[in-house]
Amino acid sequence: MTDPLTRYLELMPHVGAERGRALRREGCLCWRDLLDAASPLAGFDRTAWDVARAAAEAALRALEADDATYFTTRLAPREQWRVLAHWFDRASFFDIETSGLDADSIVTLVCCYHRGQPLRFLADENLDGFLDLLDEIRLLVSFNGASFDVPRVLDRFHIPALPCAHVDLRWLCHHAGWRGGLKAIERALGLRRPPDLEGLGGAEAVWLWQAWHDRQDAQARRTLERYCAADTVMLQMLAGRLCLQHGADVSLPVEAD
Q1: What is the pLDDT of residues 44-54, one digit of tens each?
Q2: Model pLDDT, residue 66
Q3: Measured at the alpha carbon of residue 150, what is the angle toward residues 221 and 199, in degrees to the nearest 5?
Q4: CA-to-CA distance for 83 and 71, rounded, in angstroms?
Q5: Phi-psi group of 165: left, alpha or beta (phi > 0 → left; psi -120 to 50 → alpha; rest → beta)
Q6: Hey, which residues does 12 pair with through a beta bridge?
């Protein structure tokens, strides 16, 4: 199956939905086809055609350079699943917990499912390690991260922007017709967490952190880490479902017990 990212002709200037359909009718199915065409197609004049071809060439260079950010900054939010599908096997899925639900709360825990490994970064221990990990990440995936997780991370580490591309599953789910928070979507799709983590939410995560921070409650810490790590595993599973929903060819992860 052709990469859904390179099939997206509408990334090019002067190519809207109607012209994209016209190009496909004339056999131009991907960016490479656009470059290989001997003359303008689909009613393009020469100037607009040259602009579109130059954009296709730039997109292919970005793809060869493995530059996911090039595409996350150019594709409309509803089309970002194409980036997710292309980099799915190498995407890193992350979630954070904080000390409270107000603006002054601090980041207490970052969990990241990275290259098949669940990684945990805890405040007062190894939280700064997440900043180092970001330099290894090609595509970072979150749920509602654009509004919550990413701004908190930028503030905590005093950096102006992420050094990697970021895709927020919340809006991809919205455009796919899956509404509500992460756990509501999980339930709707039949995804299940371990029984002892069912029913836990952000408020409980705050309490668990306080129990660990104030009283060194080791069980509270373990539960907090497992709860946050479960979010990242669910993000990977949800991302896979989204890609399949759009017809992308990805391998779904095995649902953990």
Answers
A1: 999 999 999 99
A2: 97
A3: 40
A4: 7
A5: beta
A6: none
- The tens digit of pLDDT for each residue in 60-69 reads 999 999 999 9
How many whole angstroms separate alpha carbon 52 and alpha carbon 8?
13
Helix (H, G, I), strand (E, B) or coil at 76: coil
Q: What's the number of CA atoms in the CB half-sphere (13 Å) around residue 247?
A: 6
Please name the residues in contact with 140: beta carbons below 8 A apart, sequence gap of 6 or more: 91, 92, 93, 94, 134, 162, 164, 165, 166, 167
Q: Which backbone phi and psi does 140 adopt, to 5 degrees?
A: -100, 135
Judge whether 32 and 60 are in contact, CB under 8 Å.
yes
Residue 212: closest CA among 203, 222, 204, 202:
222
Assessment of whether the complete model's pTM goes beyond 0.85: yes
In this structure, what DSSP letter does residue 146 have? T
pLDDT of 1 > 60? The answer is: no
- Residue 46 sits at the vertex; the CA angle it makes with 42 and 48, to the nearest 5 degrees, is 75
Rounded CA Rg of the chain: 21
